[in-house]
Design a protein that fits this description.
The complex is a heterodimer of chains A (222) and B (411).
Chain A: E1 2-13, E2 16-28, E3 33-37, H1 44-51, E4 59-64, E5 67-68, H2 74-84, E6 85-88, H3 100-109, H4 116-125, H5 141-153, E7 159-163, H6 171-188, E8 191-196, H7 199-202, E9 207-212, E10 215-221
Helix pairs in contact in A: 3-4, 3-5, 4-5, 5-6
Chain B: H1 4-17, H2 19-57, E1 61-66, H3 87-96, E2 100-115, E3 118-127, H4 130-134, E4 139-142, H5 147-151, E5 156-159, H6 161-168, E6 177-180, E7 183-191, E8 204-208, H7 209-215, E9 230-235, H8 241-255, E10 266-270, H9 271-314, H10 316-324, H11 329-364, H12 374-400, H13 404-409
Amino acid sequence: MIRLENIVKVYTVGKKEVPVLRGITLNIEAGEHVAIMGPSGSGKTTLLNIIGCLDRPTSGKYYFEGKEVSSLNSIELARIRGKKIGFIFQTFNLLPRLTALRNVELGTMYAGIVDRKCAVEALAKVGLAERADHRPVELSGGEQQRVAIARAVAKNPVLLLADEPTGQLDSRTGEEVISLLTSLHAERRMTLIIVTHDANIAHHCRRIIYLKDGMIVGEERI
Amino acid sequence: MRHWRTMFSTLWTSLTTHKLRSFLTMLGIIIGVASVITLMSIGRGTTAQILSHIESMGANLIIIRPGAGFGPGGIRGAGGSVQSLTVEDATAIAQQIPYISAVAPSFSTNLQLVVGNRNTNAQIIGTTPEYASVNNLKLAEGAFFSQEEYRRAAKVAVLGSDVAETLFGELSPVGQKVRMGNMIVAIIGVLESKGGGFNSPDEAAIIPLTTLQQSVSLTRTAQGERVVSSIYLTVSDEKHTDYVVEQITNLLRSRHRLSASAENDFNVMSMKEIASALEETSGTLTLLLGAIAAISLLVGGIGVMNIMLVSVLERTREIGIRKALGARERDIWIQFLAEAASLTFTGGILGVLFGVAISTLLERMGIVNTLVTPDIVILAVSVSIVIGLFFGSYPAWSASRLDPIQALRSE
């Protein structure tokens, strides 16, 4: 489903060029449960952004569901993000002025689904049906991340991307969030990629890819 | 299409989150629209007043005054400085030109009017009995002088409403005697007020021309004709006005023996022309007033742009999140543009309400005549929407162009 061929990403800071990814070649099949591990600055998030069609590689080819996407324009990339990909962020990234339910609805809005039911169901799925009318500030960190997960899965994406989903949570709520993601993956058979530097979390996955200095330095299947 | 309900609730949330800020932004537009409406309604009201005044003077009226016209490069003598019109001109016009219903030559001067211990200096108009019908004058009481009184130079006078009030107050002047210069005249009628303005008889006393000649000797021309200040006449049908004006011009030129290259020594003005000239002038005035008010609308628009730019900056992260969720550039663009447009649209509607209220108040308080017409309202509201779209488009565009990665990283 995901095929990366020699992906290179270079950021230009002032006049200096900073290579972040230096030739990543990687295949991920549909329904896989993958962790990407590596120290900070290893390019994990950049890789995830490219896989999530938020960012374009400087060079190399990226095939998503067989389609070459690195050359698509921003409208087509937005359509893929809206319909196919769910994002979960370390900092939750909920809109502070909207209620939990409205936040989840936002995830379906850009997928073109005109149905509040999806949002309500997704919120129930993460166990926050009674919290629907609460704003993010009225929720705990774990609850906020569960709302964010509901937002990501409400449109039933084929690919779920989580960038350090437990980074802001204590270990117990972190565990809960990971087991929620794992059970959603098992139930819906969507492809799940988690970026983390926590080995415990990585070991919930079936495949671990190790990244260092913008290159894949190892891989492990469990 | 997209999720309309969600879009509207997003819009509502954005506008109500910073209520004071939204209101202040709208205030600029409210003031702008209200002043456009108020000033333009004053312009329209004034125009309507002028036109109704002209209507009251009679649309069929033609006025001939001495003096040259506005020739190219020519020097125009002030009205009355040339003594070219005569009673005989008026007679010739009445006899030789078709489609004329009545002609009234008139000579005006100023004389002291005295009744007991009250006195006033009034304009004295010496004319023929046709003057009343030609100028559409109505009598509040009594009667205008007759042909018979004109022929025998009867010492009678008809007073304008202001003159009557000055001399007699609440008492009825009809039947009373007034000393006018060196003669005593009997008041036989009082005119209804025309409310002042151009050619209004309110401050005048009207007597037969024949009577005036006995008191003030009229200047005579080289041909021995009696000079008058102006000639008033009416055409039987408004549609012949242009023809009659042309005929009068030709007749007077030949009577005054003007060579082909000489300018007219008189001025023929039809009410139709005067009305259209005045209407044009006040139309320009209305536009000018509207344009001045539009400046404040423009300033309001700049305020909208300012706030929208701040809003985009504040919500950079939100834009990043929306983009990550699949929002296209167009979705973001529409979202911010809709915010700007609904601010100015709401401001426009409130501005219309305020503007209409102010105009009505001005009219009620008798300060100035106002007239709010639908076109002013439509203009003001559509301009306010256009301003929202215009000044909102740059902030919306800059929001839509944000890079999602950088937007997500911002605090």
